[in-house]
Here is the input.
Amino acid sequence: MLAALAALLLAVACVRPARAEDGYDLWLRYRPIAAAQAQAYRPFATQLVAGRSTPTLAAARDELLRGLGGLLGAAPSSSGAVTRDGAVVLGTPTSSSLVAGLHLDTAGLGREGYLIRSVRVDGHAATVIAANGDVGALYGVFRFLRLLQTRQPLAHLDIREQPKVQVRILDHWDNLDRSVERGYAGQSLWGWPTLPDYLAPRYTDYARANASVGINGTVLNNVNAVALSLDERYLVKAAALAKVFRPYGIRVYLSARFSAPIELSGLHSTDPLDPQVRRWWRDKVDEIYRLIPDFGGFLVKANSEGQPGPQDYGRSHADGANMLADALAPHGGIVMWRAFVYSDKQPDDRAKQAYQEFVPLDGKFRGNVILQVKNGPIDFQPREPFHPLFGAMPKTPLMVEFQLTKEYLGFATHLVYLGALFEETLRADTWAHGKGSTVARVIDGSLDGHRLTGMAGVANIGSDRNWTGSQFDQANWYAFGRLAWDPQQSARAIAADWVRMTYTNDPRFVAPVVDMMMASREAVVDYMTPLGLAHLMGAGHHYGPAPWDDSLPRADWNPVYYHRADAQGIGFDRSASGSNAVAQYAAPVAAQFGDLTRVPDEYLLWFHRVPWDYRMRSGRTLWDELVHRYTHGVDEVKRMRRTWRGLSAYVDKERYDETTAFLGIQQQEAQWWRDACIAYFQGIARRPLPAGVEPPAHTLTYYESLSFPYAPGQAK
Ligand code: GCW
Here is the structure.
């Protein structure tokens, strides 16, 4: 009787994982592997043989013990020599004589590369995780653990990996008051008031998580920067964080406010050619390096959306960037200068302005300057064509900036897997040097032979227990890191790894969830901004639909600027007959995007103004197609909900319930988007809804009357 009861309890426990989870452990959960499989893995992890320790190698060792201990139920014993089959040998040729003795081909792996190989040591079978640099060994450990976490075989391993991109960095838009611009995951992680004295354990977990996906840099403060971040009082706090991150291979960078010399030291100017200003920055940089010897450098938003910059003194972006670069160069630091510039004084199409300002400066930047370019020419929309600067500045290193925090894609509640968006940009072909000149090859430097390369992600991380505000937004952090390591990787494969590590390897869960994630990006495009529309979000906070909005002082902040709908049609004419933004792309791309008959449907209204009765490839009129897409987007969210509803058996209750509730919010908001946009555009197009299509739930006046003074994440 008792045995039967116990069996029953066990069966129930197996159906739903009993252990409470809140998402804090991210994809590094290391939950026990089922007995049979664990049994098969154990012979590959009998001993851990690590040589001399350094802080980074200690972190690698600790992670390995923690991971194997969790996954296999018991950590391998630490040993000074390989005395039996199944040892894991870890280290670099310098730290471990065993590794040195194996004469592995570690040369060429660089500081961060690693190899994992099945070898024989002293007559015993072993797995070696070897690298040239300590941090490579740490990356190798995370990779080895991933093999177990995703249930890959451990026999006959021969893995050799090296990052393809040098600077793999998160940009935190975190303010000193701990608010986060466009942050939807709680307050800033950085406890400025208690730093440098209190080092929250969470800082270490943040570093571990980043290192596990290869992220090697973090910009601590908002690009809309205050000068105070560069004051000694805050530098010592940044230095304390840098110290925590250092063993994990993560360098600290800071956003620099261009006018800091005026604000911090009372200088009368911040003209980059003024010797006094130049000296100020040199001194400031020297001071920073005294506190943070491996400081990475500055990120700068200048002459953009009201930020100060070199143009205030009639100087160019290159003058400004080069001044900072000169101060950083002796220490090995870099400048990431943002190309996100546009001006309302400039009557031209906002999508053209960054190119117009920066292309003439190609070749004028110092070697330690890299331009940080958003993935598209406007601003992190659900869909944009790739930024025309990619491929257009061959003499200048360009890094891409993606936004992980979903400012324009439903905040933290909408399930949108951004891996699909990142992949779309990275695979886009610029045709700069003929076919195959992808954005990925601009970013990894191979297209024009640049050694300074980078990828930045605007962080979606805050102090919420689950880090990112929702369980599924963790995947966007994860996918960003993996793609920064290798921009050629597949978003789908990355999603599969993430699902396996974060939830379960059960194919009955993995397959539908990966499909759902991959479809989720197209869904949000459809219910917010289908067919190449953009920027229809509520003004300022960007929460919800407001295609009618024309209230902001700057034309190019208002939705009506972007969709240009009137009785005749809709869309922004960027072809030769309009703003001719297409001309900024290489000829074959321009020819395709600029031709109404060849432009992909996804970019139709981005590049063309099209009459409402225009016949689409689908056979529908443009108006009918627009309604169809909006409706389809909502249907996709309903489908996601159905999928998720069938998966409760595979997920712990806490995480299951959160996603269930958030998908509910997403459905309501997708419906709101659809209904409000259809109500608005119908009033302009003056056409009936296609037969059988459900009309909007409310009148346009109702949607227009909604206001959200407390929407989260607003800029200060
Ligand atoms: O998307 C916009 C945001 C601003 C942000 C700006 C930028 C940091 O609405 O909040 O400012 O982009 O990228 O500089």
Remarks:
- Residues 173, 181-182, 223-224, 301, 305, 340, 379-380, 407, 715 surround 4-O-methyl-beta-D-glucopyranuronic acid (CB under 6 Å).
- Residues 1-18 have pLDDT under 50 and may be disordered.
